[in-house]
Write a structure and sequence with these properties.
The chain has 189 residues and is α/β, with parallel strands linked by helices. It contains nine helices and five strands. The longest helix has 15 residues. Bound molecules: adenosine monophosphate.
């Protein structure tokens, strides 16, 4: 099974992706985690993207598409994967379509976890506290900027997948377990 989890920063994509990894044997592919690992390792790529992440902007489509293209070919993705944080632009979504077509693979579903913006600010602020303030992008101005980037650049992929007949929406304002149940109902398990 191949899924995309969509939603604004803090919507709970990572939480649900990690759960699906356990329950469905699907590999979570979090581009945010991959980029943070690059930064931590001090690689060339990490150095290149560090300021971009800290400021809450998007890394270029070329870099991201190449990163995912390599990643989905690895053996741990054979049983399926959950894209968490990718695609984030219509150009990335189009590149993903081509990539999957080349591999003769389909997407099973695109699940949007919908939440309201005010609740998201509270959730992200709480996550920053829980993580000991280690995410440099968690201060409130950056969060607001990330939300604007989401609305301007990422939200347009929602109609893109709706037009493809793949979009499903769950209510991300419900408790984590209920969101999980909504997702499982979509996946029919
Ligand atoms: P996330 O953990 O998914 O919120 O991602 C953290 C940051 O990584 C984002 O704010 C972007 O700077 C960068 N990032 C992650 N995924 C992508 C992507 N698909 N395209 C561009 N930038 C990304």
């Amino acid at each position: 099974m191949r899924l995309i989890l969509l939603g604004a920063p803090g919507a709970g994509k990572g939480t649900q992706a990690k759960r699906l990894e356990q329950t469905h044997g699907l590999k979570q592919l979090s581009t945010g985690d991959m980029l943070r690992a690059e930064i931590k390792s001090g690689s060339d790529l990490g150095q290149q993207v560090e300021t971009i992440l800290a400021e809450g902007n998007l890394v270029s489509d070329d870099i991201m598409v190449e990163m995912i293209a390599h990643r989905i070919e690895k053996p741990d993705c054979k049983k399926g994967f959950i894209l968490d944080g990718f695609p984030r632009t219509v150009a990335q979504a189009q590149a993903l379509d081509i990539m999957l077509k080349d591999h003769k693979l389909d997407l099973d579903a695109v699940i949007e976890i919908k939440v309201d913006e005010k609740a998201l600010y509270e959730r992200i602020a709480q996550r920053s506290v829980d993580e000991g303030g280690t995410r440099a992008d968690a201060d409130i101005e950056t969060v607001k900027h990330r939300m604007k980037v989401y609305n301007d650049l990422t939200a347009p992929i929602i109609p893109y997948y709706a037009a493809a007949g793949l979009l499903q929406t769950v209510d991300g304002m419900r408790p984590i377990d209920e969101v999980a149940m909504q997702i499982d109902a979509i996946l029919d398990v």
